[in-house]
Amino acid sequence: MKKGTKIALGVVGGLVIIGAVAGTGGKDKDSSSIADSSSAMVSQSENASQAADTSEKSEVSEAKEAYEVTYTNAVLHQDSLGEVWVSAIAEVTNTGDCDLYMSSGNFDFEYDDGSLAASESMVSVFPQIISSGEKAYYYVDTILDVNADSKLKLVPHVDAEKSTIDKVTLPISDETIKTRDLSNEIYLSGRVENNTGEDLSMVYVSSVLYDKDGRPLAVLFTILTDDLKAGDKMGFEATGLSLPDNMTPDAVAQFKTTAYPYEYQF
Fold this sequence. Notes:
By secondary structure, the chain is α+β, with helices and mostly antiparallel strands. The chain contains one helix and 15 strands, in the order ββαβββββββββββββ.
């Protein structure tokens, strides 16, 4: 190699190109073209990689927000003591392509003019994890400081994110809707089976009640506080806190019950 000759490195299509650059004008020009071409290709590759990263992040972001509130309803009723109760339900549908983890939310109750009548925090949601196309239900029975003849609009505030927990659902059998003789309270009885191969604690059981048009009416709920041993079955009774008097077995056209071990996503 002549004195004054330099080595030029370029990356083209993943290959390392080594060229000798002498002090003469012709060779410098050729080498400069190779270097410029290599730099452009590297730049294009980096841009493509950045675009892919951006697209991937966008898809993850969309997955976190891939849900829609598809139904809401709030029904007021007065108990024998004169307290005004509301049974409020919000249906959320997973419209994305990944499982969603549902956390407790918030309900605002508005008058017809949009003013706030009441607000309820820490509203429970059932079930905990929903796959694409599945539905979860925020539901509360609670006392409100309003007139019994008030017309209220339910405004739900949903908390959902991409699930990092595997969804586990447990088999349900012997389901029956009943009413208690004295109080006429509606409830659902049945048995849940642990088919996971390991002992479970804090098993949640929820049952969504629907009318003849497929609209959700209420959610009956219970927690099995005793450990459910692997392979065992355990009976349950799922109830509501204070349901309207017209919530009878005849009003329920169908129901869907889900049982699962509760897990926290941090």
